[in-house]
Amino acid sequence: MRTEVRVKYIWQNIFLYVLYVLCKNRLLCIGKIYNYMTNIWQKYMYMKFYIKI
Length: 53
Prior knowledge:
By secondary structure, this protein is mainly alpha-helical.
């Protein structure tokens, strides 16, 4: 399971990078990317907490 999770996050990082390249010059997209990253971070923290239990 842990390997699957790791692969999943690698793909999300690639997706984020693509978003960054596409939206590099658009300030509006920075907000969207920030929201997306915050969302991933919250899920990641939740999963860490869940795995500990």
